[in-house]
Write a structure and sequence with these properties.
The chain has about 375 residues and is of the alpha+beta class. The chain contains 13 helices and seven strands. The chain is elongated. InterPro entries: DUF5931, HATPase_C_sf, HATPase_dom, Sensor_HK_TwoCompSys.
Length: about 375
């Protein structure tokens, strides 16, 4: 899509160069034909050079944009000398004619409507100077208005088109990734998952060391099932569900929505780290075999993850004493992380009634 805009500018440059040449022939070179045809030659050479340069991503940038603008303004400022005393009689069209709109369009495509407006202001200012210094030249604002409209409208449309292309590319990538996951899921379901399920079941039946192997097989089966079913998130984003499901085990039950919890990768990773810290506290204070439940849900522009256990609860004042003693697990690993994300943490607990840590982080809807 980006290349299509630059190609359209190249076509405009060539067409406007032909138009300026026709005007030069029509008026027999104006008052100073040599200077006039020199301007046309410069325009032709720069049209060829700019058309090539703007088609190369590595060259397209600020140096080229500035040179483009300087060439156009220089050709425009040559108008009073080339046309001389005929400038007022020959109407309001300068020597380069509409060719000077090329840099405005280029700046607009490169930087959007704001940069297009800046370029239009520069060219319009040069055109006003030419008219003020021309003998009897009428002061018209039609050209300036058209330049501003072209710069702003083209810049806006170019930005919209580029964003649409990026979204389309992400959608194609997600669809391809999902098709690959489905292909792998079919093969894994027919082989690996069935074997893991069998090991889990037989291990539980046999007991002893085999039961531990069965437990590990069950954990890997759950993790593998999640891996092949969760959809890929857009580039630069992550699905929090996938990160939370990795925390599941025979002791930890993870429940997530059916739809993706998509958020920036850093936010998703820090949120999962805070949940992991909460689960570490469950194991540390309730025992290795303590049960815990993780529940995630999507709200209005935010995601809430709660971690609940059925342990002895937190005695009144214990968190404050831990902070005073320099033990900052809750203060830093959970509350600190979430605060850095612009979120909040609430802890509900009572002796003998377990603990629930509720983590809420901003997650704009996609």
């Amino acid at each position: 899509m980006d290349f299509a805009f630059w190609r359209a500018i190249a076509v405009f440059r060539i067409a406007s160069l032909v138009y300026a040449t026709v005007l030069m022939v029509q008026h027999e070179g104006f008052a100073h034909p040599v200077a006039g045809w020199t301007v046309i030659a410069v325009m032709a050479l720069w049209t060829a050079a700019a058309t090539f340069c703007y088609s190369v991503d590595a060259v397209r940038g600020w140096p080229l944009l500035v040179i483009d603008m300087l060439v156009a303004v220089a050709c425009l400022l040559a108008t009073p000398y080339v046309q001389g005393e005929f400038q007022g009689e020959l109407g309001s069209m300068p020597v380069p004619a509409i060719w000077v709109a090329g840099p405005v369009l280029a700046w607009a495509v490169y930087g959007g409507r704001r940069l297009g407006g800046v370029a239009a202001a520069i060219v319009a200012g040069a055109d006003l100077w030419v008219r003020v210094n021309g003998p009897g030249t009428p002061i018209l604002i039609n050209g300036a208005v058209l330049l501003f409209m072209a710069g702003i409208v083209v810049g806006h449309v170019a930005r919209l088109a580029i964003r649409a292309e990026e979204r389309m590319q992400r959608a194609v990538e997600m669809e391809a990734a999902q098709r690959e996951r489905e292909r792998l899921a079919r093969g894994i379901h027919d082989s690996v998952l069935q074997v893991l399920a069998l090991v889990k079941r037989r291990g539980q039946e046999m007991g002893g060391e085999a039961a531990e192997l069965g437990r590990l097989a069950g954990e890997q089966e759950a993790a593998l099932r999640e891996l092949v079913t969760v959809r890929a998130a857009p580039t630069g984003s992550a699905d929090l569900r996938a990160l939370l499901m990795r925390l599941g085990s025979t002791q930890v039950t993870v429940s997530t929505p059916a739809t993706p919890l998509v958020m920036p990768t850093a936010t998703a990773e820090e949120t999962a780290a805070a949940v992991r810290a909460a689960l570490d506290n469950v194991r540390a204070h309730c025992g290795e075999q303590a049960r815990a439940w993780v529940f995630a849900e999507q709200g209005d522009g935010e995601v809430t993850v709660s971690v609940r256990d059925e342990g002895p609860g937190i005695a009144e004042g214990r968190l404050e004493r831990a902070h005073a003693d320099g033990r900052l697990g809750v203060a830093q690993s959970i509350k600190g992380r979430v605060a850095d994300l612009g979120g909040r943490v609430s802890i509900l607990s009572a002796p003998g009634e377990g603990t629930e840590v509720e983590i809420t982080v901003p997650a704009p809807l996609h």
